[in-house]
Amino acid sequence: MLNEDIVPQGRLHIELDDIGFVMGTTVSERLRTFGGQLFQVKEHFARLALSLDSLGIASVELLPRVQAASIDIIAHNIALCGTGSDLGLTVLITPGRSTTNPPTVLVYSSALPFSEMHSWYSNGISLQVSSYRQVPENCWPSHLKCRSRMHYYLADQEARSKQPDARALLLDQHGNVAEASSANLLIYNKDIGIVSPRKDNILAGISLSVLENLAAQLEVNFQYANISVTDLMEADEVMLCSTSPSVWAVRECNGQACGAGADGEIVRALQQGFSDLVGLNIIAQAAELAVR
After folding, report:
1. What is the pTM of this model?
2. What is the pLDDT of residues 132-175, one digit of tens each?
3. Which helix H or strand E contains 202, and what residues bound it?
4. Domains of the chain, earliest start first
């Protein structure tokens, strides 16, 4: 979708004088389907509304049209996928070409990285603590999901220069753990429960909220608090969560083993809880589609 028109993905474009391109003022939202149906649509679009409000873009009339178009695009494109497959959906909105023009809206679907997800579920992932820091809330609100991601890009470059398969872990301005590049991080300790960094230090993901609810169902304590790198290294389990893979384990940080890796009891329980919630086995789906 480009503004009001449904077009082939190859025709999606942004004008060179669009403020979203010139100044990087592009808000975004990323959803995925489970069993062909978009997950947590209400929650994702509520967060998108908050992001638009931060930019002064009126969302009351705009978002119902974008949501309806998103559902139509998925309904059309999922029919073109193989049996049992699912899609990601991205929404990008900019202020437009000037302050007087309407906002630019792009919506598109894409294949999910099932091969990578299968590896993450099976083996966990490696992190490298980056020297680049999380953007503080006095630069932009922590709830604002945007495509101004230079800090993620530089942090991941740095991580891969140290370890080719690693992902960056960013700290906040005070040296506390914030988040991985485009994923929330959690730790688990048997005597404390699950801990997430404080919400004012992170973009609180929709998947993070789902995990908080699943923890309650498992009768596992869940809290938001400062996490040091030492806390992470000494945790019983360390995990990441984001839209496409839902939740998966961290096996090492800075080249040293941490937590229980992919065999952690809690990460497995949360994966099972996610599977029960969405009505399909997310681990089995990734394994099957990784080899197609």
Report:
1. 0.93
2. 999 888 888 888 898 888 899 999 999 999 999 999 999 999 99
3. none
4. 9-112 (3.30.470.10), 118-288 (3.20.10.10)
